[in-house]
Amino acid sequence: MVWLVVCGTALPVFAQFSPLQLKVERITKKTDTGERHEASGSITFIYAGDYSANMALRITVRNTTTKPFDGLTLRWGIVKSNVSGFRQGGDSAYGAEQTLDLKPTESKIIETDVVTASGKRFADGDARGERIRGHGVQILRDGKVIVEEFVPPTGKKAFESLKPVGSQEEPTAPTGGKKPKGKKEK
To answer: Which CATH class is domain 25-181?
Structure first.
């Protein structure tokens, strides 16, 4: 009886371990010009500053077994959101997939293409354009996921309809990008 209990609990725990290790590092670059102010009489106009963010991934895959893995599929994507005001939504994942072969105990490092998001932003957080939300990486064998990582986990839904990196569209920015404030000049 003890043997059945030990084996019954050990099998589900063993099934959670993957023969592959996955490490994902984000390579990012951000720029933000900040908003600028212009006074016209008693009104100060505040113009949104430009911002942009670039992200690529450095993916390390390691075969932890003494058996080779041939014909694996590596899928990766970077998730972007459309931003309008203080709201965000319309997540899209841009990425690619490629075939991967791993010899016993071999590690491979894959550096992905860069995905860019940009728009206009005010200092109070009001923004228009796009924002990078996260990433997702999956390794599949015969169409079944062996190991995956999604940051944040909600990005997995956008990852289901992965778009090629080259299909990124320019964000729609507000015309003029100005916000009148009723501050008086002194």
So the answer is: mainly beta
